[in-house]
Amino acid sequence: MSEVIGFVGLGAIGSPIARRLAQAGFNLVVHDVRPEAMRPFEGLARIANASAEVGEQAEIVFACLPGVNAHREAILGATGLARAKRVKLCVNLGTLGEPLLLELERGLLDAGIATLDAPITGGVPRAELGTLTAIVSGDRAWFERVEPAMCSYANKRVWLGPRVGSAQVMKPRLPAVCRAPNRER
Asked: Which fold, 4-178?
């Protein structure tokens, strides 16, 4: 695949997701604040020195970060994604809660960047197998554009509608969501 996909956050869940994207043939550029987290991606993906550098190389960037401060810094900080000129979409895989997600969305929108709210569930073993569940809210056209990439790590993808933040609200109600029909390809 020729389109470059960005990935920020190579922790316990992010690393296997990024690896699955690369193995599925996506042209990947990655960043993590910990250099040791990026080493396994040498030869598999391009390595970036900051989130903004990822966003200068990719129109679509997935973010899988560990907490409030990591999200604010990687997305809105001095070298954050919002500083990049090329990126058009941030796909946020974290479970942040609606208030923080909407704060990040506002900052990204001010920079002309859209947000897909796409928290995942399933843990590390399912991330490694590509059998996570992705609960997605945001613009439908963006969801359809990134769904082929999501297929590499999530065998179940549920789109909840156009309102960013809906997925954050719905994730605690996941047992009911998991019974929803899968989107067939």
From this structure: Rossmann fold (3.40.50)
